[in-house]
Design a protein that fits this description.
Elements lengths: L19 H14 L5 E4 L2 E4 L1 H10 L5 E3 L5 H12 L4 H23 L3 H4 L6 H13 L3 H12 L3 H9 L4 H22 L9 E6 L27 H5 L5 E11 L4 H11 L2 E9 L13 E9 L12 E3 L10 H10 L4 E4 L9 E3 L4
Parallel strand pairs: 1-3, 4-5, 4-9, 6-8, 9-10
Antiparallel strand pairs: 1-2, 5-7, 6-7
Helix pairs in contact: 1-2, 4-6, 4-7, 4-8
């Protein structure tokens, strides 16, 4: 065996090699102080010390060699690298996901190679291996699931980028989100949904307000970016509300867009009557105060039918997915308003309502 022709073991390869300045500093240290820690071999390959081995090879110093004699080479590699390396949670998730089948194989190998023994391994061993890998790498299982999804989608180049530290799981997810939004925009531009026909006695509208954080539909600039295509104030103002002569309008807005909402009502020819506040029972993001509420402006045109004896200006219900409005709101509107109803920019179909929006 030639000392400088050694290959790395598959267990060692689950960890990324050091590169750049860190690799150069290792070479300089070995050159000045010699190799302080042996390169460990297992099955004729480098189990631990690939970076030290590479540095020695480039410098021209013959590395000191030891042989692993334990029964848990995979755990040996993991333990040593986790102590020495400053790995991100993303990198640990990549490694943890890759380690799962290896842990299963190692467990089977220690129990014996006969088929009758292998068959006796409990079916839940995979689940235990996943838990063991997560604990071993001190990483949230959601990260591991996200990496597993990338693997199932065949996106190995993204996984390798995360493993090497060239990108992050969050960056990959942001890019996916950006591409999804751009695709949605192209589809909307090429296939504009037919708008509702006729006029309505009741209109609920939830405009896709533009927070200025998704320029070119880019979700990278702020963690509160909306997961849908937005409209600027002028575009919203240009919406022609298909209202009957006597109509009730429910305009959803946020704290930030309250002033614009008041102006919108005037543009659309409605008179403000009250403001409903939705307590989401959960604090969200916010630059000045953490957001926990949304508002719905109640406005009328003409003399619409309206019969309310029990509902106040406060509605309290836990939020669900982004931008979805509470079911108790629609129950209230159904009870106190009559006539043909339209949900403009709806998230889903609703019995007894006309709906309009790219998500339905």
């Amino acid at each position: 065996m030639k000392i400088f022709d050694l290959e790395s073991h598959k267990f060692a390869d689950i960890f990324p090699m050091t590169e750049g300045e860190q690799a150069e500093q290792l070479k300089l240290d070995i050159k000045e102080n010699g190799l302080q820690q042996s390169v460990v071999l297992f099955e004729g390959k480098i189990l631990d010390g690939r970076n030290r081995y590479r540095a020695c090879k480039e410098i021209g110093i013959e590395p000191r060699i030891e042989y692993y004699k334990g029964e848990k080479p995979l755990e040996f590699v993991i333990s040593g690298n986790l102590k020495r390396r400053h790995l991100t949670a993303d990198q640990r998730a990549v490694i943890a996901q890759e380690v799962m089948p290896m842990l299963e194989a190692e467990a089977k190998k220690r129990q014996g190679s006969r088929e009758d023994i292998v068959e006796k391994i409990p079916q839940g061993s995979k689940e235990r291996s996943a838990v063991k890998a997560g604990k071993m790498f001190n990483v949230n299982e959601k990260y591991v699931r996200d990496i597993k999804k990338l693997k199932e989608e065949g996106r190995q180049e993204k996984i390798e980028g995360i493993r090497s530290g060239k990108t992050t799981l969050q960056d990959v997810k942001k890019q996916d989100r950006l591409e999804k939004l751009q695709k949605q925009k192209k589809e909307l531009d090429s296939n504009i949904q037919e708008k509702p026909t006729g006029l309505f006695d009741v209109v609920v509208i939830d405009p896709p307000w533009d927070y200025g954080t998704d320029e070119n539909y880019n979700p990278n600039s702020f963690r509160g970016t909306t997961p849908y295509i937005t409209m600027n104030e002028q575009q919203i103002r240009n919406i022609n509300i298909p209202a009957e002569e006597n109509c009730i309008l429910w305009l959803w807005t946020t704290n930030r867009f309250l002033p614009e909402s008041f102006n919108l009502l005037k543009e659309w020819g409605f008179e403000l009557k009250s403001i409903l506040t939705w307590d989401k029972q959960h604090m969200g993001i916010g630059r000045w105060l953490r957001s926990q509420t949304e508002h719905c402006l109640l406005a009328i045109k003409g003399k619409p039918y309206y019969n309310n004896t029990k509902y106040s200006t406060l509605l309290s219900e836990k939020r669900t997915e982004h931008s979805s409005k509470p079911e108790s709101f629609y129950k209230m509107v159904d009870e106190i308003c009559a006539g043909r109803k339209l949900d403009y920019f709806a998230r889903s179909k609703r019995e007894g309502w006309d709906v309009y929006g790219d998500e339905v």
